[in-house]
């Protein structure tokens, strides 16, 4: 996410603390800080807010935050049953905004197989809002007056990629790119997804799954350079089309 915090707040139709800081990044890895959009009840009114969370959900019962290393994605097919996610999906749903994401496409087979990275992004430069869940974890090693005793973390819901249609659409490209798809939210459905409080989560999960392919149909893919494979590389050149990187 390289969008300015003010632009993110405006597009999410949310508010943010004046002290909120969001470091620009073109190569976000699990356990990094990411922005999330959530809704909370403040004085009996629903308020939409932008926060910064660690990507990799740490459930409230975890002994330490290392659990989050394995929980950056949540499979939508099992999110209601998995102990790590089942509490958050009921009452702590969020949207995770991104300008795009990388996937590696495999070509060939066996020892000659190779992988090429692609940048998946919306046409027109708008943001993708992925369906997510979040959790607050209290560090037992820190005192009550320590401002860092609470850790905010999140996960992105995923589903099976679209089936191949043979019509050379974006969905066909996504089918050939990876077998899993991070679930994007329709803007109208996002309001329902973010609605705070305990509620029946199963219908919400099915709703966002049913609309995901239609939203993803407005995306575009472009091949980018292999430098994205190293998280130490971080700059706007990472999302440049691969042919531009070698142009004179």
TrEMBL record:
InterPro entries: SRAP (IPR003738), SRAP-like (IPR036590). Gene3D superfamilies: SOS response associated peptidase-like (3.90.1680.10). The keyword Endoplasmic reticulum does not apply. The keyword RNA-binding does not apply. It is an enzyme of class 3 (hydrolase). It comes from the Bacteria. Keywords: Covalent protein-DNA linkage, DNA damage, DNA-binding, Hydrolase, Lyase, Protease. Its EC number is 3.4.-.-. GO terms for molecular function: lyase activity; peptidase activity; single-stranded DNA binding. Pfam families: SRAP (PF02586). GO terms for biological process: protein-DNA covalent cross-linking repair; proteolysis. Belongs to the SOS response-associated peptidase family. This is Abasic site processing protein. It comes from Arthrobacter rhombi.
């Amino acid at each position: 996410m390289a969008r300015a915090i003010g632009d993110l707040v405006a597009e999410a139709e949310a508010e943010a603390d004046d002290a909120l800081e969001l470091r620009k990044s073109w190569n976000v890895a699990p356990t990094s800080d990411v922005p999330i959009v959530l809704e909370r009840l403040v004085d009996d009114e629903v308020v939409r807010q932008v926060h910064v969370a660690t990507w990799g959900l740490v459930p409230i019962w975890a002994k330490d935050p290392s659990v989050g290393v394995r929980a950056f994605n949540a499979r939508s097919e099992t999110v209601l049953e998995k102990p790590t996610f089942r509490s958050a999906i009921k009452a702590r749903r969020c949207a995770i905004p991104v300008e795009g994401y990388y996937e590696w496409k495999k070509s060939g087979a066996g020892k000659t197989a190779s992988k090429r990275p692609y940048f998946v992004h919306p046409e027109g430069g708008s943001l993708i809002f992925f369906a997510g869940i979040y959790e607050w974890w209290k560090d037992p090693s820190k005192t009550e007056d320590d401002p860092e005793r609470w850790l905010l973390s999140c996960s992105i819901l995923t589903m099976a990629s679209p089936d191949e249609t043979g019509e050379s659409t974006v969905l066909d490209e996504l089918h050939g790119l990876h077998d899993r798809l991070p679930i994007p939210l329709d803007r109208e459905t996002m309001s329902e997804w973010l609605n705070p409080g305990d509620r029946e989560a199963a219908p919400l999960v099915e709703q966002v799954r049913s609309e995901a392919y239609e939203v993803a149909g407005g995306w575009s893919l472009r091949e980018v350079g292999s430098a994205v494979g190293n998280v130490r590389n971080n700059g706007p050149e990472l999302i440049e089309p691969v042919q531009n990187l070698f142009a004179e």
